[in-house]
Design a protein that fits this description.
Blueprint: H1 2-19, H2 30-35, H3 60-96, H4 102-133, H5 136-147
Helix pairs in contact: 3-4
Length: 168
């Protein structure tokens, strides 16, 4: 009788352990999170890819100016990203060599800092340029939307497949 009870208990534990695959089963692919996501979510507003700026009553002239600013921003951010990638690669090469040259590594870090500084100043100038295009009502909405996005990245950042909010 004891043997039957132990066998039944062991079988119960084994079956219940295999019934719970966990949060990420092996057949789950990260792309499915975004491809099979329901479009309407009543609990959370849907994020949109911003092809056009979501501001009320933009005139044709404002839309053209915003598009020009957006293209200039994309061009400069691509240039900045390429320069930073080159500096990171040079730094990584210097750090993995047998002879570590701290002065060269520090010089590259100084270049990276100067580049980041220039990028931050450029972002502020572009933001002010967008604000100068808008009227008072649009400016208030624009400012309130920027304040809700920590880091200006729409809470996604640079990595991942998630759709990103457009930064100005």
């Amino acid at each position: 009788m004891l043997a039957i009870a132990i066998f039944t208990f062991t079988l119960f534990i084994t079956v219940s352990a295999f019934a719970q695959p966990g949060r990420r089963s092996q057949d789950f692919r990260p792309q499915q999170r975004y491809a099979e996501r329901p479009i309407d979510r009543p609990d959370r507003p849907q994020r949109q890819m911003l092809e056009e700026c979501i501001l009320p009553d933009l005139t044709e002239e404002q839309q053209v100016q915003m598009k020009e600013l957006r293209l200039a921003r994309l061009e400069s951010s691509t240039r900045h990203r390429n320069q930073m990638d080159e500096l990171r690669a040079r730094k990584r090469n210097l750090m993995t060599q047998g002879d570590v040259d701290n002065d060269a590594i520090n010089a590259i870090i100084d270049e990276m800092t100067a580049l980041k500084n220039a990028q931050m100043k450029e972002a502020v100038n572009k933001r002010q340029a967008v604000r100068s295009i808008l009227n008072e009502e649009q400016r208030v909405i624009f400012d309130s939307r920027q304040a809700r996005r920590p880091g200006g990245k729409g809470s996604y950042g640079r990595a991942g497949d998630a759709p990103r909010m457009r930064r100005w």
